[in-house]
Description:
mainly alpha
Amino acid sequence: MPAVDTPGTAPSTAPAFQDGKAPDALRTIGEVANALGLKQHVLRYWEEQFPMLRPLTRAGGRRYYRPEDIALVARIDQLLHREGYTIRGARQALAGKGGARPAPAAAPEPMAESAPASAAPMPAEDEIIAAIRVLRRHLETIRGRLADALKD
């Protein structure tokens, strides 16, 4: 099962991997890409655009991401895809030159009579995003299988 952000943590933290490896284990580019719902070529491009993102490379150019690299990738993803930064702006924000960071929009306070006391709380935004990413991957798999079936 793909990893998702741990509920209750900040969105800029690294995702929790559920693959049996130690939390501080090195991860391949494929593992990191799957956990964050990104394509591998996007991570390679980000390595070119963000000088602070430097995973370990082994023989043959195979990349291994340390936990701090994964946290940085998650932060870059948040800046670019959720907060609307440009690559240049995200690079400056990560370098500490971004000035004041834009404040996230505050959620309105729920009214006391709008929901009964027994209603379950809404899931966190990170949980919803992670669930949508999983659903998207499943749909892409189904689409691929259907395309293969139509070829036959």
